[in-house]
Amino acid sequence: MIHFREDFLGKLKSASRLVFFSGAGISAESGIPTFRGEEGLWKKFKPEELANFNSFIRNPQMVWEWYQYRRKIGKESLPNPGHFAIAEMEKYFSDVTVVTQNVDNLHRRAGSKNIYELHGNIEKNFCIACHSRYDFLDFQESVDVPRCKSCGGLIRPDVVWFGEMLPQDVFSEAESKASKCDICFIVGTSGIVYPAAFIPLTAKQNGAYLVEININPTELSSTADYSLYGRSGEILPLILSAVKSKEY
Ligand code: BJW
Ligand code: ZN
To answer: Is the CB of 157 under 6 A from ligand 1?
Structure first.
């Protein structure tokens, strides 16, 4: 049992607007590998080498295989108690926003309503030549990288790779939510990828209290007001219990 710090419990009591900024670590307990760290590498490739348009052009089959492998894992995975605890917070706070770097749909499947997906969604695809849109089911069984039905162009996942712009409307709305929140939780992210990592910094600059939940210290730890080290699937339900029991 964690004994939460008094200043955090006080903030929780007076807060009405929460932002949860999440990364791959929140889905680790659902069985989805993270990007970095010992458990995080796929066939020894770094995410920078795979999540990259030039790599896709050089070796579309390799990049496609990585996404099909992750889609298969995603289909077999379920949201964990961390995702569910965030979704349930909506009962107790008037404005709960999830800003996620994840593409895995687990926040949605847990029932969260206000989700901003900064790096796209793994279930969608599009043609790199004519931009026709396709969904996951169109190519669910495709071992080989598929071709566009209208123009023959290569099909890629609708996610944001290095050097690519984030969806601007999604990012600016997420920034706006961050600038108005009372508490920003930073959950399971290394915090090294920008501009996504500006979200908690924007929250802090506008007076929010920052709470980090991670198994290890990160780049954002020194900025956080409170760091809770442990698994998000364990810590988030404890925070929810504190909220429910009005312990504070
Ligand atoms: C647990 C746990 C448990 C484990 N409980 N915790 C400054 C400003 C702007 C841009 C830049 C900048 N500096 C550099 C850039 C460029 C670049 C960048 O950030 N590079 C850095 C790496 C240095 N950024 C970009 O290129 C971005 N675009 C851009 O800047 O556009 C403008 C532009 C356009 C044209 C030219 C130039 C600029 C785009 C970034 C896109 C990132 N894409 C990916 C792939 C998405 C699709 C996919 O899923 O395949 O996003 S890469 C990958 O990293 C993915 C993730 O969302 C992202 C972040 O990773 P995350 O989620 O933090 O995971 P991990 O593995 O790093 O960490 C997991 C954490 O969980 C760890 O801390 C564990 O300890 C913890 N953990 N188990 C709690 N149970
Ligand atoms: Zn096409």
So the answer is: no
Q: Find the 160 Cα to ligand 1 centroid distance in Å.
A: 10
- Here the CATH number for the domain that contains residue 210 is 3.40.50.1220
235-245: pLDDT as tens digits: 999 999 999 98
Instruction: Find all residues with CB under 8 Å of 117, minimum gap 6, and list them.
Output: 100, 102, 103, 170
**Contacts with 196 (C-beta within 8 Å, 6 or more apart), sequence order:** 21, 101, 118, 119, 166
From CA 213, how far away is CA 30, in angstroms rounded? 16
Residue 203 sits in the same domain as residue 91? yes
Condensed to tens digits (0 to 9), the pLDDT of residues 31-82 reads 999 999 877 888 888 899 999 999 999 999 999 999 999 999 999 999 999 9
Cα 48 to ligand 2 centroid, rounded to whole Å = 26
In a shared domain, residues 217 and 190: yes
Per-residue model confidence as pLDDT tens digits over 2-34: 799 999 999 999 999 999 999 999 999 999 999
Its domain, for residue 131, covers 33-76+125-159
